Amino acid sequence: MSILLKQLVERKIISAEQARSVEAELKNSPDKTEEELLVAKGFVEEDGLFKIKGETLGVPFFSEPPEGLSLEILKIIPEETAKFYKMIPLEEKKAEILIGMVYPEDLKAQEALKFLARENGFAYQVVLITPRIFNVLLGKYRDLKKEVRKALEEFQEEEGETEAGRRPQFETISGVEDAPIAKIVNVIIHNAIDGNASDIHIEPGRTKLRVRFRVMGELYSSIFLPLNIASAVLARVKILSNMKIDERGYPRMAGFR
């Protein structure tokens, strides 16, 4: 029986029989966690469960998400890494970054966090958060997709002008810094830089153009784009060879801001 289940039984929050039923189901459902099963079965409420888990692990428990989570701080952990390891940066406090983790006992998650801290040069303190809080905060990463969606809408509006007999040339689409395709590619590059990706993979499929980032040696899907913009995106990427890097580390066309 796990330490957490033993604690729940000792505190008379669940019965020994209920603990055994969770253990039995874990054997048949290896993709589930005991926390998920305990809450799903109604044996214990999520906040109460994680409060006890925090006490058991000796990790401070955050019962509420921080107010006004900074989008800048999210750049410390890429979205796909956050999803995979169920961990997310919360705030900077006393020269340390508070990292919320749903499973701080996960050794692989701890190793990934140590790697990120070493690569980015930050100190951190781990706090325990519930899956509910994690999912709320994970939604903050959606800003990237919103930016891409907005740029796609602008591109589609330009495409609509072809009905009037004018077809935008690739020079127009990819040669002007504020053109929709330029925005899409720049958002992809900015996100790769912010997420410490070593590579960007733009892969055409049967129906979609898939963008993947390589982080810590693993490829993660980031966004999917319409297949019909593949040529325009490729043309824009080719132009990057003539770009300069600005003071923020972002690419820009020579002569443009």
Can you walk through the features of this model?
It is a single chain. The protein has helices at 3-10, 16-28, 34-40, 46-57, 71-74, 79-85, 107-120, 131-138, 143-160, 170-175, 180-194, 230-239, and strands spanning 87-93, 96-101, 124-128, 199-204, 208-215, 218-226, 243-245, 251-253. The chain folds into 3 domains: 3-56; 71-140, Type II secretion system, protein E, N-terminal domain (GMP Synthetase, Chain A, domain 3, 2-Layer Sandwich); 141-253, Beta-Lactamase (2-Layer Sandwich), CATH 3.30.450. The longest helix has 18 residues, at 143-160. The chain contains 12 helices and 8 strands. Strand 2, helix 7 and strand 3 form a beta-alpha-beta unit. The chain has 257 residues and is of the alpha+beta class. It is elongated, with a radius of gyration of 23 Å.
Topology:
Layout: H1 3-10, H2 16-28, H3 34-40, H4 46-57, H5 71-74, H6 79-85, E1 87-93, E2 96-101, H7 107-120, E3 124-128, H8 131-138, H9 143-160, H10 170-175, H11 180-194, E4 199-204, E5 208-215, E6 218-226, H12 230-239, E7 243-245, E8 251-253
Parallel strand pairs: 2-3
Antiparallel strand pairs: 1-2, 4-5, 5-6, 7-8
